[in-house]
Amino acid sequence: MKRITMKNIRQALLMLVALEIIAISINLFYAPHQVAAGGATGIAILLEAAFNWNVSLVVLVINLVMLVLSYLFLGKGTTLRIMAGSFLLPVFLALTPQVKVVNDRLLAVIVGGAIFAIGLSILYRIDASSGGTSVPPLIIKKYFQIKPSISLLVIDGIVCFFNIFVSGTEAFILALFSSVITSILMNYIETGLDRKRAVYIMSNEDLAEIKIRLLQRLEKGLTVFAVTGGYTGVEREMLMLVVENQDYQDVINQIHAVDSTAFIFTTPITEIHGGQI
């Protein structure tokens, strides 16, 4: 029997929190304004608006169908991974009251999109899922080699498009806008909000002085690479250091104070793991 660890408990609690966050975004922001921004919850919102069907029950039925498809086409492992979220999300949707907390539709989809992104990002972080329309893209990838992100975009786009027939063109535009907000925020949340920059430096004559100046100024380590010029074939050294965004301009100023013609290029960094060497 597999032993339950603190990590398992922590992941289970995070999953519950994430699913409730998603339920809040649906029941307090999307559903009251009849805006369906994709996914199983989007289909449920459309059916509620058109036929007054219960959102949580519709999501449960869709998730059950998706679980069957997952078992038939993706196997037992994938089905077990998405099973908990598939059953729990409808429960949270049923327990969370559907209340219009914001009267302005645009503000509702902005806030709802942001909240939805937080919940979904937490699920992705712990390798969990709320089920629903995440299953068909995996099946399409397995049999047709199409990226899940592309097929999921198409599915969500179709759901968004049906807003036109149920809630009007405005709802369709708001649904697309909300999807963009969710996508952008998820990208930032998943890759970390603590952004840094990697700075690479080369100098013809003053690299040693630049190195000393940066070490004294920043009190941080840096890395020295041995590089060879592709055109000249000359071997030389290149410095690389990672700096906080607020320290970036100071680093550039220190380099230029030594060599105003130094070669510098910078790349953004979203995450760093491990220590310095």
UniProtKB/TrEMBL annotation:
Residues 221-274 form the DUF2179 domain. Keywords: Cell membrane, Membrane, Transmembrane, Transmembrane helix. InterPro entries: DUF2179 (IPR019264), N-reg_PII/ATP_PRibTrfase_C (IPR015867), UPF0750_membrane (IPR051461), YitT (IPR003740). It is found in: Cell membrane. It comes from the Bacteria. Signal peptide: none annotated. GO terms for cellular component: plasma membrane. The keyword Transmembrane helix applies. The chain crosses the membrane at residues 12-31, 51-73, 80-99, 105-126, 146-165, 171-189. Its main location: membrane. It is a multi-pass membrane protein. The keyword Transmembrane applies. This is DUF2179 domain-containing protein.
